[in-house]
Amino acid sequence: MGCRVDDIYNITLNITLVVPQISKEVSNPDIYEQNKIYLAREIENIVKALKIANVNISLNPSDNPLKELYYLRYTGSCIESGDEGVVGRGNRIGGIINSRKPYTIEGLNGKNSAYHAGEIYTAAAWEISNEIWNNLGLVSETFIVSQIDRPLNDPWQIIINCSEEKDFNSVKEIANNVLKDIGKITNNLINRRYPLV
User: Fold this and answer.
1) What domains are defined for the chain?
2) What is the sign of the dihedral through the CA atoms of 84, 90, 96 and 100?
3) Which residue of 46, 122, 135, 149 sits 20 to 30 Å from the alpha carbon of 114, by its own alpha carbon?
4) What 3-state class would DSSP assign to 138?
5) H or E segment at 12?
6) What confidence tens digit (pLDDT) does each residue in 152-191 have?
7) In sequence order, which ranges of 1-90 are alpha helices (DSSP H)?
C-alpha cells in the first residue's frame, strides 16, 4: 500500500509492505528477522535505483516480537485465511465502473463487513463525498488509505479532492463524523444500503 504526500516543498512517498514468510522455511524468530533485514535492504536498493527521494517504508508493521506475532503463512498467501475477497469486476459502489476517473478496486460483496478495511473505507469514502455534497455543495473525490493493524476509525491517510476551494475545517469535520461511526457503515453494508453496479 502506498500513498504519495505532496506539500509545497517536497513529495514524500509512504509505503507499507506486508510480506509473509513461509512458515516451514522459518525455524525461529531470528531467521524471520534476518529475512526481514535482507528484504528491507533489497527494497532500499530498489528505491535508490529508481532515484526516489523521501521514501518512508514500513515493513510488516503488525509484527510484535514480544508477543511472538510474526507474519507467517503456510502457503505464503492470504488465501489460506479466507481474506482474499474475490468478487469479480462488478459490485462497485455507486452503480458505475468508470474508465476516466479514479475509483476503488474493492467490490462491496464477498468480504467481512466488520473488519475488511477495503470494503469499509470504500463505503466511508462514499459517505464522506455524499456529506460534502449535501452540506457544502461541492463535488469531491475521497480516498482513504489503510495500514495494517491501525484502528478502522483512524485511517493512515485521507485524501479529499474538491471541485472548488473548500473550507478545510468543514471538510475535516465531515470526514471525522463519518469515521467515528464505523459501526453504522458496517450496518449499512450488511443491509445493502449502497447502490452497486
Assistant:
1) 2-81 (3.30.300.340), 85-197 (3.30.300.280)
2) positive
3) 135
4) coil
5) strand 11-17
6) 888 988 989 888 887 889 999 999 999 999 899 988 888 8
7) 29-49
Rounded Cα–Cα distance for residues 70 and 18 (Å): 11
Q: Report how far residue 142's alpha carbon sits from residue 150's, in angstroms, rounded to the nearest whole number.
A: 19
DSSP of 41-58: HHHHHHHHHTT--SEEEE
- The one-letter code for the residue type at 114 is A
Q: What is the pLDDT of residues 182-191, one digit of tens each?
A: 899 988 888 8
Cα distance between residue 23 and residue 164, in whole Å: 51
Cα separation values, 46 from 2, 49, 50, 51, 179, Å: 15, 5, 6, 9, 35
Q: Which residue has the higher pLDDT, 23 or 88?
A: 23
pLDDT band at 4 (very low <50, low <70, confident <90, very high): confident
Contact at 8 Å (CB) between 38 and 25? no
50-63 tens-digit pLDDT: 887 888 888 998 89
